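Hi! If you just cloned this repository, the fastest way to understand the data is to look at a raw example. We've pasted two of them here, unedited. The first protein comes first, obviously.
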Amino acid sequence: MANSRVSDQHDSRFPYLKSQSFHYHKLEAESPPSWNADFGIGDRRLAFSRQTSFHQSAENDSVKPMLSRTASSIDIPQGEGGNVFREEKFFLGEEKVWEEKFSVVLFVSLALRIIRSGNRPMRRLLVLIFLNVAYSTAELCIGLLSGRIGLVSDAFHLTFGCGLLTFSLFAMDVSRKKADRIYTYGYKRLEVLSAFTNTLFLLFMSFSLAVEALHAFIQDESEHKHYLIVSAVTNLLVNLIGVWFFRNYARINLVYRKAEDMNYHSVCLHVLADSIRSAGLILASLLLTLGVKNAEVLCLGLVSVTVFMLVMPLFKTTGGILLQMVPPSIPSSALSKCWRQVMSREGVTEISEARFWELVPGHVVGSLSLQVMKGMDDRPILQYVHGLYHDLGVQELIVQTDYA
């Protein structure tokens, strides 16, 4: 009897879904919700599913509280406890070693898959990562052997940049997968996240260069070491190769038609910012050699401002997509006009929960709820609403109708 009551309630409460030419949900008029004395809620299915455990705990309430710690009924011999802990530590150590080996194997398999089936930008980015890894490793070894802290610091900076470039490469590879049951919209937005991460790193680099310029202004410039000029020249040559690889995206205000454009643009800005940083260090060293005062402060300050101005447009765009802002391509005045046109339609009494966002560049999604007079045929209204917002640039629209 209980199961039949649950199934009847399930059939009477859930709306049905029309899926012929539009994506919308139609809600039937519901009966007033019933009251349950034990819970004070209207859904009897929820009350039924939770009643048994509730009453069982209430019967034993006088014996002990519901949330209480009790002694375990499993007795572990004292002689075997130490062996268990030792075995656990052994397995944890093996797990850490296995994770390290797995990460290396994963990167190697990613590289082989890109070499075999990747497109040209992915292969170029892989070559750029290999060049940066080789150069940062050589710089780290030389810095450790010679005791140069500046070389070691620059090597760690390049290593962190290689990690971000690797994440961009991973995003390019994963975004080619199709949508599945878990990620129903696909993996394209991972490239937007990769571009946002790159721009965030570049903004941090701009801030660190400004702090370094301020430190150089306070400190005596005669104490600065100029041995980094060789490292800066080598780093500039490596980064110029990357700039040439992604030269089609070396613009500030780039029109993004796909998610790949954002990721490629972020990679180009990454290597371009590193090139500007290396060129600034070379120029500062040359000016200091010629005896120009405050040359390092001036060069680092200019590099910091330049990197900031290059990165901010992409940072705003990717941040707006991740925060699901209204797309800039759809002005608010156009949305207000569509709102008024729908409200003037016969039979529509209210519009609510109108939301529009950009899933990835070039794909706008929207949803809204319409309240229609009872007895009206909602199909002509839905056709009008879909056509109106499609002409505005919304590719995917979900409309839910309620009857007043």
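Ok, and the second one:
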Amino acid sequence: MAQDGNVKVTFVSQKIKKIRWIPEDYAEAQCFFTGSWDDEVNNIKVWILDYINDNEVKYPKDVSTFIVEGNVTEIQFTSKNVIAVSTSDGKVRLLQISEYERKTPLKEAFIWNNLHKIAGRACPCTSLATMEGDIATVGEDGNVNILNSRRGDITRTITEADSCSLHSVCFIKHNEVITGNLRGHMKIWDLRSSDNKPTNSFLFGGDQLATTCIINHPTQPYYILAGSESGAIAMWDLRVNTFPSTLKSHPSGVTEMKFHPENPNKLLTSSLSGELWEWNMEAVMKNTKTTENWIALQDKNTTPTNTLLESFKPLNSFDCNKGNILVAGENEAIHFIKNFKY
């Protein structure tokens, strides 16, 4: 264990691909999930913040482990106590955690096998997104699947949604998703339509590098943000047909982006170059009903950023819960940032 002011570091001896708080209704979260990758045996672990060896500071302690085949590629909640987990063997699992006793081992509620495959053989499910119990998955086969977590069925499959590997997906609305591929092409799909054609498509940039992650604004979902393999972050206003505004870039690929759940003016991003940045988006995300006040960020330094963490190895994932942030990546450690001013 290491300690530096408000940042506590616990070494866990495995590379972590995804990390997620388990929210509590009326208090700060004390438990969280991690999903590993690049290990002989990968797993989903449940951790609890606890006092260890008469320490006055709480550190993560693992309380249960669920083994998975392949690398974990994404973890998202479908309901309060159920997560969807995608893996590199083309599977998506629903795992359930007890609402009252977090130390109880995870229970597998459902599994979709071979969701993504090429020439009949399983290929990675690269990412997934969730909304109100529905799950959208994308994979290296270029397909999009819509799953119903309540019934356990596949409600829609968009075959050959792209000619190359899809790397990111996000729900815009319950009946609309946006995907990003290996070459930076982004497409919007109307899930009510019977044909497999996008309703809109656009290019991240001229470098044709992968779109690594996509999110939308929590209160103004027509604002779409995407992170690139190059480290660039771009933003679109779907109400107007304009080129994206490019924000200040990370030195290397963007791994995750999230708005703070309690403050939509706070954006956090992590990257392969080992930084966790905090962005002040208040100037951009004004709650306006017209498009006249849209601010085009041609000057990349217009949006101020603050470095919350720097690591000598890539940061793959992070999550926020009130003033606490969890960060994990290739250095086989969990960083616990306390007292974040959100």
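That's it. A detail worth noticing about the second one: The radius of gyration is 19 Å.
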